Amino acid sequence: MEKNLDFRSDTVTWPTPEMRDAAAQAAVGDDVYGEDPSVNELETLAAKILGKEAALFVTSGTQGNAVSILAQTNRGDEIILEVDSHIYLNEVGGIAVMGGLMVRPIHGALGWIKPEDIKHTIRAENIHYPKTSLLCIENPHNRAGGIPLTIDQLRADWEVANAHKLSIHLDGARLFNAAIALGVNVKNLSQYADTVMVCLSKGLSAPVGSLVAGTEEVIKKARKYRKMLGGGMRQAGIIAAPGIIALTKMVDRLVEDHNTAKLLAEGLDRIEGIKVLNPVRTNMVYIDYSGLGWSDFDWINACHALGWKTRAGPVTRLCTHYGIEAEDINTFIDGLTELVQSKS
Ligand code: TLP
Fold first, then answer.
1. Which atom of ligand 1 is least distant from the CA of 10?
2. pLDDT score for 314
3. Is the minimum distance from the CB of 86 to ligand 1 under 6 angstroms?
4. Phi, psi (5° rounding) for residue 172?
5. Is the dihedral of CA 122, 96, 56, 321 positive or negative?
6. Residue 75 above 90 pLDDT?
7. How far is the C-alpha of 224 from the C-alpha of 230, rounded, in Å?
8. pTM of the entire structure?
9. Cα(173) to centroid of ligand 1, in Å?
10. What is the pLDDT of residue 296?
11. What is residue 129's predicted lDDT score, i.e. its pLDDT?
């Protein structure tokens, strides 16, 4: 395995040698005509794995979230989401621009929007109010610390949403990490959502792409929105073929990333001046290094000197992924401990 010493995200992962071969050999056709065999195979496989009628290959997680939301709302509707969710914070406000949607952010508990909060937020029928039509959830929740929402939590939200005729969109960019962390089949998590988006290009290491799954009807609409957004691809089999390997060969190894994240958190916790902020359940460690008395520049430089790319904070996220092994973490922790001691 080629080393990839980069803590900034799991989006930095490189395709495996097998993915590169698959891309080179992929059968292709024009996907806008529905004629790319590799894309068709990937979509069928994703629908089966996620327990849905149909799936759609999209360029990115952001595009997948957008087309899912557009396919289930009308202009002027209100949607409920978590205040630190990726859709609310990191998707350029696209759903307001493209969908004319109102957003109603709610504070979650470690990323989970509690059912009673959903219930209180849903608008009653009133001439003054927009219609609440969709609930968006994120699993695992990135900014809460990569925390997987449990089946019980998802079911509880689903019951309230269902009782109020609200659809649910699940941003499952890292849903396979959640399934592995909880020790459940991914279908048990996706069953409590009408649409689910999963990313191939994060911990699963594919170079490009995400998938959206749902009913035939909603996926047909999402496909049209994807075209509207310029996401109708042609010989996309070249990128779908690595995606098939991502889904079939790269899911089970995510446990290694969770183990290296735990190792990293334990090591960082032993360094005076660094605080680990989240319970580490998947592949993310959030830290506060302000106790070191270093500037962000010092932090970046120290990590760089040890051979790593990182983000700066002082509250910052470190992600583990394919290309990082336990021995790399141990070497990093030893090196950082020495640097901290030499500067104090
Ligand atoms: N997240 C990226 C950055 O955009 C922050 C990262 O490094 O974590 N949903 C969730 C929960 C995500 O974390 C991301 C990417 C997306 C959606 C969007 O996926 P892409 O980057 O493929 O558009």
1. 7
2. 80
3. yes
4. -110, 50
5. negative
6. yes
7. 10
8. 0.98
9. 7
10. 96
11. 97
User: What domains can be seen in the chain, in order of their start residue?
Assistant: 15-248 (3.40.640.10), 253-343 (3.90.1150.10)
Going from the C-alpha of 319 to that of each of 148, 182, 258, the distances in angstroms are: 15, 19, 9
pLDDT tens string 200-239: 999 999 999 999 999 999 999 999 999 999 999 999 999 9
CA distance 138 to 120: 20
Mean pLDDT of 46-73: 98
Whether residue 199 has its Cβ less than 6 Å from ligand 1: yes
Q: Match 């735990």 to its residue by tokens.
A: 262
Q: What are the tokens at 196?
A: 């689910």
Report whether residue 173 contacts ligand 1, using a CB cutoff of 6 Å.
yes
Are 245 and 23 in contact by the 8 Å Cβ rule? The answer is no
Contacts of 141 (CB under 8 A, 6+ apart): 82, 84, 85, 108, 110, 111, 112, 147, 149
- Assigned token pair, 47: 């629908």
Tokens of 218: 């909603």
Q: Is the CB of 172 under 6 A from ligand 1?
A: no
Q: How far is the CA of 10 from the centre of ligand 1 (A)?
A: 9
